[in-house]
Amino acid sequence: MAFLIFFICGIAGGVLGGMGMGGGTALIPLLTIACGVPQPVAQGLNLASFLPMSVLALSVHAKSGLLKWEGIAFIVVPAFIFSVLSSLLAAALPAAALRKGFGAFLVVLSFFELRTTVKEMKKSNK
């Protein structure tokens, strides 16, 4: 039964990741709430699943000619540096602080998504 729950969580994370939302937005809460996985472990599992999927997606986009290489260092270098720093911070924080921070992030993200959806609906009704 546990395998089935983890499998369903993986499908949900994969579908949302494939749609561009970011699978971790669903996968981390699903793992912590539905499966009882501790927050730091759920974040590690999300990262472990993200890496191979991102390599595959990058190769598909590169073959399709959808990548713009100019200016990439201005995105990659800061992202790498802040990913490392954030990982170190997350390892030092208690799990309760990670849960609250991630919950606040999801709430803020949902408001941005709602605002974007409402704007798009208004444009399509004109």
Treating each run of at least 4 consecutive H or I residues as one helix, how many helices? 5
The largest β sheet comes out as:
none
Provide the β-strand percentage band.
Answer: under 5%
Structural class, by secondary structure, is: mainly alpha
Helix content: over 70%
**3D shape:** globular
Order of helices and strands: HHHHH
Number of domains: 1
Give the tally of β-strands: 0
Give the termini separation. Answer: 49 Å
Rg to the nearest angstrom? 17 Å
Residue stretches low in confidence (pLDDT < 50, at least 5 long) are none
Mean pLDDT: 84
Provide a concise account of the structure shown.
Helices cover 83% and strands 0% of the residues. The protein has 126 residues and is mostly helical.
Describe this structure in words.
By secondary structure, the protein is mostly helical. It has one domain (2-125). The chain is 83% helix and 0% strand. The protein has five helices and no strands. It has helices spanning 2-18, 23-33, 39-63, 73-92, 95-125. Helix 1 (2-18) runs antiparallel to helix 2 and helix 2 (23-33) packs antiparallel against helix 3 (39-63). The longest helix has 31 residues, at 95-125. The radius of gyration is 17 Å and the shape is globular. The N and C termini lie far apart (49 Å).
Task: Record the SSE blueprint.
Elements: H1 2-18, H2 23-33, H3 39-63, H4 73-92, H5 95-125
Helix pairs in contact: 1-2, 2-3
